Amino acid sequence: MEPTVIIFIFQVAVLVMSVVVHEVSHGFVAYALGDPTAKYQGRLTLNPIPHIDPVGSVILPFFLALFHLPVIGWAKPVPYNPYNLKNQKWGPGLVAAAGPLSNVFIAVVFGLVLRFGEFLSPMFSQAFFEFLVLIVATNLVLAIFNLVPIPPLDGSKVLFALLPYRLTYIQEFLEQYGWVMLIAFIVYFSDVIFPLVALLFRLITGVYF
């Protein structure tokens, strides 16, 4: 098998499993806070099949890899009913934060393996450590991007939970123009994510990215 094909397979596999963990984390926290919607719809599983979005999990990653661009994507959002949550003020923010935090957790766990890899190097190949780099970088990108406070990203739900009630007009404005703002951010400002990813990558792993 061609090396480029193998790399593509690894990239897509890491991306898919990372976004699956991200979405399942939303569902588990929602379930813990009183909403069983995700459980009833069979979405509290790490089996990727129920979570795969044809565009975000397959088509987009394929074309990005084809043109040697960073492979990003998404899974089907795990459904939940915010009105079932025990805490109506903080519940939606906690559910939203669970996804990015799960990616941070993955990045830290595998990043520490990479940091202390000098002790493991006799046991593992260079390809294994490159695979670790891919896992850490992918999860950091997912975490940081999703924490941008623009709807429908998770960061917006966290922001709305932190806003006092007198500032709900900010939420209404962001929800009305969120998609326009998100497209503008991706086109004009998404480059700001990568220096932050590189900084966090170095802090976790001790390796320049």
Automatic annotation (TrEMBL):
Entries under CDD domains matching the protein: S2P-M50_like_1
| Principal location listed in the UniProt entry | membrane
* GO CC term (a single one): plasma membrane
Q: Does the keyword Lyase apply?
A: no
This protein's source sits in the domain of life called Bacteria
Question: What does this protein need as cofactor?
Answer: Zn(2+)
InterPro entries from the xrefs? Metallopeptidase_M50B, Peptidase_M50, Rip2-like
Pfam families to which the protein is assigned, alphabetical: Peptidase_M50
Residue spans crossing the bilayer: 6-34, 55-75, 95-116, 128-148, 177-201
Q: Return one GO MF term.
A: metal ion binding
Specify the Peptidase M50 domain's residue ranges.
125-187
Q: Example GO biological process term?
A: proteolysis
Subcellular location(s) per record:
Cell membrane
Alphabetically list the UniProt keywords.
Answer: Cell membrane, Hydrolase, Membrane, Metal-binding, Metalloprotease, Protease, Transmembrane, Transmembrane helix, Zinc
Q: How does it sit in the membrane?
A: Multi-pass membrane protein
Q: Would the keyword tRNA processing turn up in this protein's UniProt record? A: no
Q: What family name appears in the similarity comment?
A: Belongs to the peptidase M50B family.
- What name does the UniProt record give this protein? Peptidase M50 domain-containing protein
